[in-house]
Amino acid sequence: ARFEGDRERLQQLGANGVGSLIAMIDELTAQRNQLERDLHAAQAALAESDNRIEALQMRAHLTPYTAYRPDDPELLVGIMQEFRTPMTSIIGYVELLINESVGILGEMQRRFLQRIHTNVVRLSAMLEDLIKLTMLDAGQYRLVREPVDIIELIEDAITDAANQLREKSLTVNLDIDDELPLLNADRESVANIIGQLLTNAYLASPPRSEITVTAQMHPEANGTERLLVSVEDRGGGIAPEDRASVFARRYRAENPLVPGLGDTGVGLAIAKALVEAHGGEIWVESHLRVGTTISFTLPLEPAAELER
């Protein structure tokens, strides 16, 4: 149709003369310029779309042509770490309110805020556990070894748990050898192991009962020695058929709780992974209607991180 129209206009040249030819050329030139502008605009829009796609890929830690996987450990850790900032902010503001930094509280208001604070801190700890467990599963958790005083870590763990222990009127007994050698271990990881075992004992223990923490040298069959740490509670014990599930992950709803065990999440699973990363062993001993003892050993010599 366009060519037919151009033919008709060319047939009119004889009548209209050179002026009409010049006008037609000018019009065609204007059309070409408009098409070029439209082409440049389309190319710019395409380039902007490419840049946005590349930016989204970088934010998701994905390379081009890599499929999105919802179970990608790097992506999961990144998402969970994003929750840290608002969680920390909530804890900070609640503490300001509890300390009456912005006004006087009534007794009921204080009690409600303390309950909020306790649960948000617990939620934050659960988030840290999930981050740590995901990194352990992905082989991304690296031990930073240094000389570690196990007695100091045990005392710090008891101090950190003092408020919880006081709530249930629990007594902690220490049975620690006078002279224990320094460990060549990751300080944060060993502190986490002790904290997880102490938390489990606190949760499993009835009010006004005792928890016993033991640290001593443990002889091996080959003549060497390892450090042995045990945490014992009086929580009534775990049935034999349930003991195999002590170190299982119970963050899924279909996993039933283990009677006599305080841990209801992934705390003991993390403790097991961290002990094994140091080349150690962890196990449970329990007697029904008496209590449970969870023990672990750590080598005194440097141990290579286990292959996963």
The H/E string reads HHHHHHEHHEEHEEHEE
Shape: elongated
Number of structural domains: 3
Fraction of residues in helix: 40-55%
Q: What would you say the CATH architecture of the largest domain is?
A: 2-Layer Sandwich
Strand composition percent: 15-25%
Q: Uncertain segments of ≥5 residues (pLDDT<50)?
A: 61-70, 251-256, 302-308
CATH class of the largest domain: Alpha Beta
| Neighbour order of strands in the largest sheet | 2-4-5-7-6
Rg from Cα: 34 Å
| CATH topology-level fold name of the largest domain | Heat Shock Protein 90
Q: Using DSSP, what is the number of strands?
A: 7
Summarize the model shown.
The chain is α+β, with helices and mostly antiparallel strands and 308 residues long. Helix content is 51%, strand content 16%. It has helices spanning 2-11, 13-16, 18-59, 73-82, 84-98, 107-137, 150-160, 162-167, 187-204, 267-277, and strands at residues 145-148, 171-176, 183-186, 210-219, 225-232, 281-287, 291-299.
